[in-house]
Description:
Elements: E1 2-4, E2 11-20, E3 25-35, H1 37-40, H2 47-60, E4 65-72, E5 78-84, E6 93-99, H3 107-122, H4 127-135, E7 136-141, H5 146-152, H6 210-222, E8 226-234, E9 238-241, H7 253-271, E10 276-279, H8 280-283, H9 291-297, E11 302-308, H10 323-346, H11 351-368
Parallel strand pairs: 6-7, 6-8, 8-11, 9-10
Antiparallel strand pairs: 1-2, 2-3, 4-5, 5-7, 9-11
Helix pairs in contact: 3-10, 7-10, 7-11, 10-11
Cofactor: Zn(2+)
Active site: 307
Amino acid sequence: MMMLGLGSVGLVLLSLAVQSGHGAQDSAVWSREETTERNYYTRYHNMSEITAWMEQMKRENPDVVSSMVYGQTYERRNITLLKIGLSSTVRKKAIWMDCGIHAREWIAPAFCQYFVREILRTYKTDTKVNEMMKNLDFYITPVLNVDGYIYSWHNESTRLWRKSRSPGTGGCTCYGTDLNRNFYANWGMVGVSTDCCSETYCGTKALSESEAWAVTDMLGKMREDILAFLTIHSYSQLILVPYGHPNISAPNYDELMEVGLGAAKAIKAVHGMDYTVGTSPDVLYANSGSSRDFARLIGIPLSFTFELRDKGEHGFELPEDQIQPTCEEAYAGAQHIITYTHDKAFYSYAATVTATLWTTLLAAWVSSAILL
């Protein structure tokens, strides 16, 4: 992928649409198209474009953006995050966000890109964002399931691929494990399948997948610093809190619900969309082995899954004309959680009030804003 100058005057994208095999590029098609920063964030992007965009973010913001490879996929592709924050002489707290753990949920990586763009666009002029950038580092993985995401771009027949791309075992000829059933959090107990052809196949054991292991390793190293964990999915318009097992409750369940409901309120204020808040068994279905549950299990206090638009009309194939409004409202919801998290850590009094005021103002601004 070659990208020349992502800026307000526009750019030329030479996009290499890579189609996956087992660690190799089966075929590639070159296309040339004009775009601008305004419409870049209203389109879905293949993995090569997202990788080039990540490099672009680092080049344009060297003082606040760096990248880190923290694992490899089954097909030996790098799993890379962006670390965003102002430099500090003291150890900083952190916010984790990952997108694209399920390959077909294209709106999720689009949101991670939008989120990065917005905090980089506003931190120099918005005093609250600037304060949070001083006190927090953001660790953002735009695409976690890289193999699966690339495969979902292969052609129409693979567009709805969900899982990783590791081969089945024990004579099973199907591919892939549901990465969000593979974490060491009540693994294999409910809402999973042991059939390797199933969409919810949980793997041969917890952390059988290198992608789940990479996240687990990073969270384990950083768990004393991470204040909030956000994993972005689609669809259903939900904010899910731990746990996915119907008989287990998080010790801070009331707080999680309060913060989640505040985020849903901030979301609704942008474009009027309703998001339901609750545990997975209460509002969706029981499941186990999710990254959200693992984060809460190891002591990260605030852990949420966002299920973005819509409620089933388009499902995983959300049209591109809904990318911008979806990202705008989700940004308001995420900012509510992050602001609450920040203020609780650094100004423990009145954190909820501050977060609510900030996200209400943000939602009002977003609803009237025009992308520059």
